[in-house]
Design goal:
mainly alpha
Amino acid sequence: MIRYIPFVLYLLLIAMNEVIWRDFTALYMIAINVPAMLVVLVSIFKSELTAAWFGFLAGMVMSAGNPDGMGWQALLLATIGIAVFHVREKLNLESIYSKVLLMAGAVLLHNLLSILINDLNRILFLTWSYCLPSAIYTSLVAWLFFLFKEKRFTLENIKSVF
């Protein structure tokens, strides 16, 4: 039972981001795609079954405010979780850059497919103004996460600068 606590915290983080933090972290309507980022992180570090069910639950929590697309988002994030797991199995993800590139591709794919599901009329405008910058913004946050995770960027390094 204790092993499920991190996943519950991740789902709470997704809910808190969708309700509260999204407006504070957005830059000119470009927001961090926290659900896709967490699904990709779980897919990189956990098993295929875990990635699938976490992607499904993340999609349900993400679209709880908009129940019209709830099933589509759950299916989309579960599929992305499974796809990222299989890409991870085929590639060597020892480098931070390969993980960040995988994150950017998955977030870009999630953004594009979300636009195809929700708003097909303005796809070119939203691709240029939202999808690409959001994927870059999310990849920068993921890059910082991977730097801290692999201990290349620590608090001692920050203290040594000052």
